[in-house]
Amino acid sequence: MTKLTKNRKLALAKVEANKLYTIEEAASLVKEITTTKFDASVDVDVRLGVDPRKANQMVRGVCVLPHGSGKQVRVLVLCTPDKEAEAKAAGADYVGLDEYIEKIKGGWTDVDVIITMPSIMAKVGALGRVLGPRGLMPNPKSGTVTMDVAKAVQEVKAGKIDFKVDKFGIVHASVAKVSFDAEKIADNIKEFLSIIMKLRPSSAKGTYVKSVFVSSTMSPGVHVDSKMVVA
Questions:
Q1: Tens digit of each residue's pLDDT (9 = 90 or more) over 1-20
Q2: Nearest-angstrom CA–CA distance, 149 and 80
Q3: Which of 6, 120, 155, 169 would bridge with 160, disulfide CB 3.0–4.6 Å?
Q4: CA 22, CA 104: separation in Å to the nearest integer?
């Protein structure tokens, strides 16, 4: 059995095992129990009462975090030449088409988000074996397949995240950095959870949000009272 470090023991001692915390309390506590030397991410894990195997119970969406995610997001825009200037002006890190398609075929994936246009999806679709497993495949539902590439780039750079329920019925998302003020962390968590509530499938019966945990990279999870999660 792995021996607990001193910092881990101190962190666990501050989290009451059977207590349900408010979002504000969780945001403050996560900052307090994080001891990493780097600026850790604040993560939210939401267990939903859905069956992801059923198409009509798939929960997937996007959320524009009011205070951004704190991450430096590297964006590649695959577009036609007439869209290149506006993509670059919007802040895209890489812009082009055929040369980047060839690089990706060769295994290059040093980006966080890929944005493209509907007319180019035929070419991009051929990259599915490389991009799919890495979660980089552009998708209209996440706003990464669009004619307005400039707006898409701006939203991603401003803190837009996309998420999807996994096969266990859990949605995972990084919503902030520990260096954020507790109030900003709480605001981002609330916005993310409000989007989750709005996406409730009509076919989902019973309790929709079963549990919510907030943690940082390598910290214990803080159990949030799911009654605090309202649409």
A1: 456 666 666 666 678 888 99
A2: 11
A3: 155
A4: 44
